[in-house]
Design goal:
The chain is α/β, with parallel strands linked by helices. It has one domain: Spore Coat Polysaccharide Biosynthesis Protein SpsA, Chain A (Alpha-Beta Complex), CATH 3.90.550. The chain is built from 10 helices and 7 strands. Helix 6 runs parallel beside helix 10. The longest helix is centred in the last third of the chain and has 20 residues. It comes from Candidatus Roizmanbacteria bacterium CG10_big_fil_rev_8_21_14_0_10_45_7. This is Glycosyltransferase 2-like domain-containing protein.
Length: about 250
Amino acid sequence: MTPLVTVLIPNYNEIENVKRGVLSDIVSYLKKQKFTWEIIVSDDGSTDSSVLVIKEFISTHKNIRIIFNQHAGKPYALRSGMSEAKGKYVLLTDMDQSTPISELGKLLPWTEKGFAVVIGSRGARRTDSTPLRQLASIIFLLVRRMILLPEIKDTQCGFKLIETTLARKIFSRMRLFGRINNAVGWKVTAYDVELLHLAKKLGAKIKEVKVVWKNEDTTLGKSRNFLKESIEMLFEIMRVRANDILGKYD
């Protein structure tokens, strides 16, 4: 039977999150639902022991599998997983589960109202983040809405439900691929903006839904330069806008 939802989770050195049982939480929630589902973990060339622990978990659970990729960044891992997805919809969610899987219940009903893209939103403020990260988020929000997607408050929440056929079209058209070799920083995470911009250009109805969010990212603060990354992010948004003006998405 074709699953309704493919839960797609990128993994890169997420051993701390894996060990605290996030996969068990995800499976426990999904088992209680009436819809059919599958889980794909798309590994981004991890160098820690997370893959071994995930493989051990998979050996005793159904409807979950892992695929392996060279380290190239989150967007590449998602694109790889997208090609393997069997569900009618694909849920992009992070291993840290800052937005818990239970919030899927808020997104799914909107697909029945004709929305092909339903995205989680943390709102304009990140009360669970550091003051520096809150400031960076507010500045990014203001600048980004002046350049692209003014109707969307939060493009960056890692909790997005997309019709799978549409998601494949979007990822096949993203100009990010083939030009980014550095797999770190906001230069890579700006992919969300390009993704949503392309969804809009393809005529997809997009719904933004407020979701629970608590910062569970254990990598924050480790070798991070927010000023440098904010500048990179701004340039990536301008790149998407320039590509649009030049007709590269047509």
